[in-house]
Amino acid sequence: MVLLIILAIIGAIAVILFLIDSLWSLLELVTSHLMPFFLPTEVQSLTKKFGSWAAVTGSTDGVGPEYARELARRGLNVVLISRNQDKLRNVAAEIEKESAVKTKIIVADFSKGAEVYRHIEEELKDIPLGILVNNVGCQYEYPARLCELPAAKAWELINVNVGAVTMMSRLALSGMAVRGRGALVNVCSGSELQPLPLMAVYAATKVYVRSLTLAIREEYASHGIYVQHLSPLFIATKMNAFSPRLERGGLLVPDASTYARHAVAALGRVHDTTGYWLHGIQYFFIKVAPEWMRIKIGMYMNQDFRKEHFESVRSKAH
Ligand SMILES: NC(=O)c1ccc[n+]([C@@H]2O[C@H](COP(=O)([O-])OP(=O)(O)OC[C@H]3O[C@@H](n4cnc5c(N)ncnc54)[C@H](OP(=O)(O)O)[C@@H]3O)[C@@H](O)[C@H]2O)c1
After folding, report:
1. In angstroms, what is the span from residue 188 Cα to ligand 1's centroid?
2. Would 22 be classed as within a structural domain?
3. Mutate to test the pocket of ligand 1, among 237, 240, 286 (most ligand atoms within 8 A of CB)
4. Alpha-carbon distance values, 52 to 129, 153, 254 (Å)
5. Which of 2, 244, 280, 296 has the fewest Cβ atoms nearer than 10 Å?
6. CA–CA separation, 64 and 68 (whole Å)
7. How far away, in angstroms, is 68 Cα from ligand 1 center?
8. Domain total in the chain
9. pLDDT of 26-80, one tens digit each?
10. Residue 79: count of CB within 10 angstroms of its CB
11. 239 close to ligand 1 (CB < 6 Angstrom)
12. Is 208 a catalytic residue?
Protein backbone atom coordinates (compact mmCIF):
# COMPACT_ATOMS: atom_id res chain seq x y z
CA MET A 1 0.00 0.00 0.00
CA VAL A 2 2.76 2.44 1.01
CA LEU A 3 4.66 1.48 -2.14
CA LEU A 4 1.59 2.22 -4.26
CA ILE A 5 1.20 5.66 -2.68
CA ILE A 6 4.89 6.44 -3.26
CA LEU A 7 4.61 5.34 -6.92
CA ALA A 8 1.43 7.41 -7.34
CA ILE A 9 3.19 10.50 -5.91
CA ILE A 10 6.22 9.98 -8.19
CA GLY A 11 3.86 9.55 -11.17
CA ALA A 12 1.93 12.70 -10.28
CA ILE A 13 5.18 14.71 -9.93
CA ALA A 14 6.41 13.42 -13.30
CA VAL A 15 3.11 14.41 -14.99
CA ILE A 16 3.19 17.88 -13.38
CA LEU A 17 6.83 18.44 -14.48
CA PHE A 18 5.97 17.28 -18.01
CA LEU A 19 2.99 19.66 -18.14
CA ILE A 20 5.06 22.58 -16.81
CA ASP A 21 7.77 21.87 -19.41
CA SER A 22 5.22 21.67 -22.25
CA LEU A 23 3.43 24.84 -21.12
CA TRP A 24 6.78 26.60 -20.80
CA SER A 25 7.68 25.62 -24.38
CA LEU A 26 4.31 26.89 -25.55
CA LEU A 27 4.84 30.16 -23.68
CA GLU A 28 8.31 30.46 -25.24
CA LEU A 29 6.87 29.82 -28.69
CA VAL A 30 4.50 32.74 -28.27
CA THR A 31 6.72 35.21 -26.38
CA SER A 32 10.12 34.54 -27.99
CA HIS A 33 9.37 33.14 -31.38
CA LEU A 34 6.15 34.81 -32.49
CA MET A 35 5.42 38.03 -30.56
CA PRO A 36 8.54 40.08 -31.44
CA PHE A 37 7.79 39.81 -35.14
CA PHE A 38 4.20 40.99 -34.88
CA LEU A 39 4.54 43.81 -32.36
CA PRO A 40 5.32 47.40 -33.45
CA THR A 41 9.01 48.30 -33.88
CA GLU A 42 11.36 49.11 -31.00
CA VAL A 43 10.17 51.69 -28.48
CA GLN A 44 13.74 52.76 -27.76
CA SER A 45 16.23 52.86 -30.61
CA LEU A 46 19.11 50.38 -30.61
CA THR A 47 21.63 53.24 -30.57
CA LYS A 48 20.02 54.74 -27.43
CA LYS A 49 19.79 51.36 -25.76
CA PHE A 50 23.22 49.96 -26.55
CA GLY A 51 25.46 52.58 -28.22
CA SER A 52 26.27 53.79 -31.70
CA TRP A 53 28.71 51.12 -32.90
CA ALA A 54 28.07 47.47 -33.75
CA ALA A 55 30.42 44.77 -34.97
CA VAL A 56 29.41 41.73 -37.01
CA THR A 57 31.72 38.77 -37.59
CA GLY A 58 31.46 36.77 -40.81
CA SER A 59 30.05 39.80 -42.57
CA THR A 60 30.84 39.19 -46.24
CA ASP A 61 28.31 36.53 -47.18
CA GLY A 62 25.04 35.04 -45.99
CA VAL A 63 23.42 36.35 -42.81
CA GLY A 64 26.31 38.56 -41.60
CA PRO A 65 26.24 41.35 -44.23
CA GLU A 66 22.43 41.40 -44.19
CA TYR A 67 22.39 41.72 -40.40
CA ALA A 68 24.96 44.54 -40.65
CA ARG A 69 22.82 46.29 -43.29
CA GLU A 70 19.77 46.10 -41.01
CA LEU A 71 21.74 47.60 -38.11
CA ALA A 72 23.02 50.39 -40.37
CA ARG A 73 19.43 51.12 -41.46
CA ARG A 74 18.72 51.72 -37.75
CA GLY A 75 21.56 54.28 -37.60
CA LEU A 76 24.36 52.12 -36.19
CA ASN A 77 27.93 52.47 -37.42
CA VAL A 78 29.24 49.02 -38.24
CA VAL A 79 32.53 47.19 -37.98
CA LEU A 80 32.69 44.33 -40.47
CA ILE A 81 35.02 41.49 -39.54
CA SER A 82 35.68 38.74 -42.07
CA ARG A 83 38.51 37.06 -43.96
CA ASN A 84 38.31 38.56 -47.44
CA GLN A 85 39.41 42.19 -47.84
CA ASP A 86 37.80 42.80 -51.24
CA LYS A 87 34.46 41.42 -50.15
CA LEU A 88 34.66 43.47 -46.94
CA ARG A 89 35.33 46.67 -48.93
CA ASN A 90 32.33 45.96 -51.18
CA VAL A 91 29.94 45.33 -48.30
CA ALA A 92 31.21 48.44 -46.45
CA ALA A 93 30.79 50.60 -49.58
CA GLU A 94 27.24 49.33 -50.14
CA ILE A 95 26.27 49.99 -46.53
CA GLU A 96 27.71 53.51 -46.56
CA LYS A 97 25.91 54.23 -49.82
CA GLU A 98 22.57 53.06 -48.46
CA SER A 99 22.72 54.38 -44.89
CA ALA A 100 24.47 57.50 -43.64
CA VAL A 101 26.68 55.64 -41.17
CA LYS A 102 30.38 54.99 -40.68
CA THR A 103 31.90 51.59 -41.39
CA LYS A 104 35.20 50.00 -40.52
CA ILE A 105 36.58 46.75 -41.87
CA ILE A 106 38.85 44.29 -40.09
CA VAL A 107 40.41 41.43 -42.02
CA ALA A 108 40.70 38.35 -39.84
CA ASP A 109 40.68 34.65 -40.58
CA PHE A 110 39.22 33.02 -37.49
CA SER A 111 40.35 29.58 -38.62
CA LYS A 112 43.90 30.64 -37.63
CA GLY A 113 42.97 30.43 -33.93
CA ALA A 114 44.58 32.43 -31.12
CA GLU A 115 46.83 34.59 -33.30
CA VAL A 116 44.06 36.74 -34.84
CA TYR A 117 42.65 38.32 -31.69
CA ARG A 118 45.53 40.67 -30.84
CA HIS A 119 45.05 42.34 -34.24
CA ILE A 120 41.26 42.60 -33.79
CA GLU A 121 41.66 44.01 -30.27
CA GLU A 122 44.10 46.63 -31.55
CA GLU A 123 41.71 47.62 -34.37
CA LEU A 124 38.77 47.90 -31.97
CA LYS A 125 40.56 49.72 -29.15
CA ASP A 126 39.06 53.16 -29.91
CA ILE A 127 35.59 51.90 -30.77
CA PRO A 128 33.00 51.73 -27.97
CA LEU A 129 31.13 48.65 -29.16
CA GLY A 130 27.45 48.73 -28.27
CA ILE A 131 26.51 45.54 -30.09
CA LEU A 132 28.59 42.51 -31.06
CA VAL A 133 27.03 39.94 -33.36
CA ASN A 134 28.98 36.69 -33.15
CA ASN A 135 27.76 35.43 -36.48
CA VAL A 136 30.80 33.82 -38.07
CA GLY A 137 30.42 30.09 -38.57
CA CYS A 138 31.44 27.30 -40.88
CA GLN A 139 29.94 23.96 -41.78
CA TYR A 140 30.90 20.60 -43.33
CA GLU A 141 31.22 20.65 -47.10
CA TYR A 142 28.76 17.78 -47.10
CA PRO A 143 27.40 15.39 -44.44
CA ALA A 144 30.11 12.89 -43.48
CA ARG A 145 31.15 10.45 -40.76
CA LEU A 146 33.72 11.77 -38.30
CA CYS A 147 36.72 9.95 -39.81
CA GLU A 148 35.78 11.12 -43.29
CA LEU A 149 35.86 14.76 -42.12
CA PRO A 150 39.35 16.09 -42.91
CA ALA A 151 41.30 16.90 -39.73
CA ALA A 152 41.89 20.46 -41.02
CA LYS A 153 38.13 20.94 -41.39
CA ALA A 154 37.53 19.69 -37.84
CA TRP A 155 40.00 22.28 -36.52
CA GLU A 156 38.39 24.97 -38.69
CA LEU A 157 34.98 24.14 -37.20
CA ILE A 158 36.40 24.35 -33.69
CA ASN A 159 38.44 27.52 -34.25
CA VAL A 160 35.70 29.36 -36.10
CA ASN A 161 32.51 28.15 -34.38
CA VAL A 162 33.90 27.80 -30.85
CA GLY A 163 37.04 29.96 -30.75
CA ALA A 164 35.60 33.12 -32.33
CA VAL A 165 32.48 33.37 -30.17
CA THR A 166 34.54 32.82 -27.02
CA MET A 167 37.33 35.25 -27.72
CA MET A 168 35.20 37.93 -29.38
CA SER A 169 32.74 37.84 -26.46
CA ARG A 170 35.64 38.29 -24.00
CA LEU A 171 36.94 41.14 -26.07
CA ALA A 172 33.62 43.01 -26.26
CA LEU A 173 32.24 42.30 -22.80
CA SER A 174 35.08 43.95 -20.88
CA GLY A 175 34.37 47.38 -22.44
CA MET A 176 30.60 46.93 -22.29
CA ALA A 177 30.80 46.05 -18.59
CA VAL A 178 32.73 49.26 -17.88
CA ARG A 179 30.17 51.34 -19.82
CA GLY A 180 27.28 49.48 -18.15
CA ARG A 181 25.48 48.67 -21.38
CA GLY A 182 25.77 46.59 -24.52
CA ALA A 183 24.32 43.69 -26.46
CA LEU A 184 25.86 40.42 -27.46
CA VAL A 185 24.11 38.32 -30.12
CA ASN A 186 25.47 34.79 -30.40
CA VAL A 187 24.34 32.99 -33.52
CA CYS A 188 23.72 29.36 -32.70
CA SER A 189 21.70 26.82 -34.73
CA GLY A 190 18.77 24.45 -34.43
CA SER A 191 21.41 21.71 -34.51
CA GLU A 192 22.00 22.56 -30.83
CA LEU A 193 18.79 20.64 -30.05
CA GLN A 194 20.31 17.15 -30.31
CA PRO A 195 23.42 15.38 -31.53
CA LEU A 196 23.41 15.45 -35.33
CA PRO A 197 24.87 12.39 -37.09
CA LEU A 198 26.98 13.16 -40.20
CA MET A 199 27.42 16.73 -38.92
CA ALA A 200 28.57 15.69 -35.47
CA VAL A 201 31.27 18.35 -34.98
CA TYR A 202 29.15 21.22 -36.30
CA ALA A 203 26.25 20.37 -33.99
CA ALA A 204 28.61 19.92 -31.03
CA THR A 205 30.11 23.38 -31.63
CA LYS A 206 26.61 24.87 -31.55
CA VAL A 207 25.83 23.14 -28.24
CA TYR A 208 28.94 24.91 -26.95
CA VAL A 209 27.68 28.27 -28.26
CA ARG A 210 24.32 27.81 -26.51
CA SER A 211 25.92 26.81 -23.23
CA LEU A 212 28.42 29.69 -23.31
CA THR A 213 25.70 32.18 -24.20
CA LEU A 214 23.29 31.20 -21.45
CA ALA A 215 26.07 31.19 -18.85
CA ILE A 216 27.57 34.58 -19.73
CA ARG A 217 24.07 36.06 -19.84
CA GLU A 218 23.82 35.37 -16.11
CA GLU A 219 27.38 36.51 -15.43
CA TYR A 220 26.86 39.93 -17.05
CA ALA A 221 23.16 40.60 -16.37
CA SER A 222 24.03 42.80 -13.39
CA HIS A 223 26.38 44.85 -15.64
CA GLY A 224 23.48 45.98 -17.82
CA ILE A 225 24.46 43.71 -20.71
CA TYR A 226 21.88 41.95 -22.83
CA VAL A 227 22.95 38.59 -24.24
CA GLN A 228 20.83 37.04 -26.97
CA HIS A 229 20.85 33.39 -28.02
CA LEU A 230 19.85 33.45 -31.70
CA SER A 231 19.17 29.98 -33.04
CA PRO A 232 18.07 29.79 -36.68
CA LEU A 233 17.05 26.70 -38.60
CA PHE A 234 17.83 26.43 -42.32
CA ILE A 235 18.59 29.65 -44.23
CA ALA A 236 19.33 29.73 -47.96
CA THR A 237 23.04 30.60 -47.88
CA LYS A 238 26.22 29.10 -49.29
CA MET A 239 26.70 27.29 -45.99
CA ASN A 240 24.19 24.77 -47.30
CA ALA A 241 25.82 24.42 -50.72
CA PHE A 242 25.73 20.63 -50.29
CA SER A 243 21.98 20.79 -50.97
CA PRO A 244 20.66 22.57 -54.07
CA ARG A 245 17.16 22.31 -52.49
CA LEU A 246 18.25 24.25 -49.39
CA GLU A 247 20.19 26.78 -51.47
CA ARG A 248 17.05 27.51 -53.49
CA GLY A 249 15.18 28.33 -50.26
CA GLY A 250 11.45 28.75 -49.68
CA LEU A 251 9.03 29.82 -46.98
CA LEU A 252 10.63 27.62 -44.31
CA VAL A 253 14.14 28.31 -45.63
CA PRO A 254 14.29 32.11 -45.95
CA ASP A 255 17.00 33.99 -47.80
CA ALA A 256 19.58 35.82 -45.70
CA SER A 257 18.00 39.27 -46.03
CA THR A 258 14.51 38.06 -45.02
CA TYR A 259 16.04 36.21 -42.10
CA ALA A 260 18.15 39.19 -40.96
CA ARG A 261 15.16 41.57 -41.17
CA HIS A 262 13.22 39.34 -38.79
CA ALA A 263 16.18 38.60 -36.52
CA VAL A 264 17.10 42.25 -36.00
CA ALA A 265 13.45 42.97 -35.11
CA ALA A 266 13.94 40.62 -32.16
CA LEU A 267 17.20 42.26 -31.00
CA GLY A 268 16.85 43.73 -27.50
CA ARG A 269 13.35 42.32 -27.13
CA VAL A 270 13.78 38.61 -26.41
CA HIS A 271 16.65 36.60 -24.99
CA ASP A 272 16.17 33.31 -26.82
CA THR A 273 14.81 33.17 -30.34
CA THR A 274 15.18 31.46 -33.68
CA GLY A 275 14.98 34.95 -35.21
CA TYR A 276 12.31 33.98 -37.71
CA TRP A 277 8.74 33.17 -36.72
CA LEU A 278 8.35 30.15 -39.02
CA HIS A 279 11.58 28.74 -37.59
CA GLY A 280 10.07 29.32 -34.13
CA ILE A 281 7.13 27.08 -34.94
CA GLN A 282 9.44 24.39 -36.37
CA TYR A 283 11.76 24.63 -33.33
CA PHE A 284 8.74 24.11 -31.04
CA PHE A 285 7.63 20.95 -32.86
CA ILE A 286 11.18 19.55 -33.12
CA LYS A 287 11.49 19.84 -29.33
CA VAL A 288 8.29 17.86 -28.79
CA ALA A 289 9.88 14.64 -30.16
CA PRO A 290 12.15 12.66 -27.82
CA GLU A 291 15.88 13.15 -28.35
CA TRP A 292 16.56 9.58 -29.58
CA MET A 293 13.97 10.08 -32.31
CA ARG A 294 15.46 13.42 -33.36
CA ILE A 295 18.90 11.81 -33.63
CA LYS A 296 17.48 9.09 -35.92
CA ILE A 297 15.63 11.72 -38.01
CA GLY A 298 18.85 13.79 -38.17
CA MET A 299 20.76 10.78 -39.52
CA TYR A 300 18.07 10.13 -42.10
CA MET A 301 17.94 13.81 -43.15
CA ASN A 302 21.72 14.06 -43.52
CA GLN A 303 21.94 10.79 -45.46
CA ASP A 304 19.47 12.38 -47.85
CA PHE A 305 21.51 15.61 -48.10
CA ARG A 306 24.65 13.53 -48.67
CA LYS A 307 22.97 11.71 -51.53
CA GLU A 308 21.77 15.01 -52.95
CA HIS A 309 25.31 16.42 -52.75
CA PHE A 310 26.90 13.53 -54.64
CA GLU A 311 24.12 13.56 -57.24
CA SER A 312 24.66 17.28 -57.79
CA VAL A 313 28.46 16.79 -58.07
CA ARG A 314 27.87 13.99 -60.62
CA SER A 315 25.43 16.04 -62.69
CA LYS A 316 27.82 19.03 -62.76
CA ALA A 317 30.63 16.73 -63.95
CA HIS A 318 28.57 15.62 -66.98
N1 LIG B 1 22.64 28.87 -43.19
C2 LIG B 1 21.99 28.12 -42.32
O3 LIG B 1 21.14 27.27 -42.69
C4 LIG B 1 22.24 28.29 -40.85
C5 LIG B 1 21.40 27.61 -39.96
C6 LIG B 1 21.61 27.74 -38.60
C7 LIG B 1 22.64 28.53 -38.15
N8 LIG B 1 23.44 29.18 -39.02
C9 LIG B 1 24.52 29.99 -38.47
O10 LIG B 1 24.41 31.31 -38.97
C11 LIG B 1 25.69 31.91 -39.05
C12 LIG B 1 25.90 32.52 -40.42
O13 LIG B 1 25.83 31.48 -41.37
P14 LIG B 1 25.63 31.75 -42.94
O15 LIG B 1 24.64 30.77 -43.40
O16 LIG B 1 25.43 33.19 -43.18
O17 LIG B 1 27.07 31.29 -43.46
P18 LIG B 1 27.82 31.68 -44.83
O19 LIG B 1 26.85 32.09 -45.85
O20 LIG B 1 28.73 30.54 -45.11
O21 LIG B 1 28.68 32.95 -44.40
C22 LIG B 1 29.65 32.84 -43.42
C23 LIG B 1 30.38 34.15 -43.27
O24 LIG B 1 31.47 33.91 -42.37
C25 LIG B 1 32.69 34.20 -43.05
N26 LIG B 1 33.73 33.26 -42.64
C27 LIG B 1 33.71 31.92 -42.80
N28 LIG B 1 34.84 31.40 -42.32
C29 LIG B 1 35.57 32.44 -41.84
C30 LIG B 1 36.85 32.54 -41.23
N31 LIG B 1 37.62 31.47 -41.05
N32 LIG B 1 37.28 33.75 -40.84
C33 LIG B 1 36.53 34.84 -41.06
N34 LIG B 1 35.33 34.82 -41.65
C35 LIG B 1 34.86 33.62 -42.04
C36 LIG B 1 32.36 34.03 -44.52
O37 LIG B 1 33.35 34.71 -45.28
P38 LIG B 1 33.49 34.51 -46.88
O39 LIG B 1 32.55 35.51 -47.50
O40 LIG B 1 34.91 34.80 -47.13
O41 LIG B 1 33.10 33.10 -47.18
C42 LIG B 1 30.98 34.66 -44.57
O43 LIG B 1 31.05 36.05 -44.51
C44 LIG B 1 26.70 30.81 -38.71
O45 LIG B 1 27.09 30.91 -37.36
C46 LIG B 1 25.89 29.54 -38.91
O47 LIG B 1 26.37 28.46 -38.15
C48 LIG B 1 23.26 29.09 -40.36
Report:
1. 11
2. no
3. 237
4. 8, 36, 29
5. 2
6. 6
7. 13
8. 1
9. 777 777 667 777 766 656 799 999 999 999 999 999 999 999 999 999 999 999 9
10. 25
11. yes
12. no
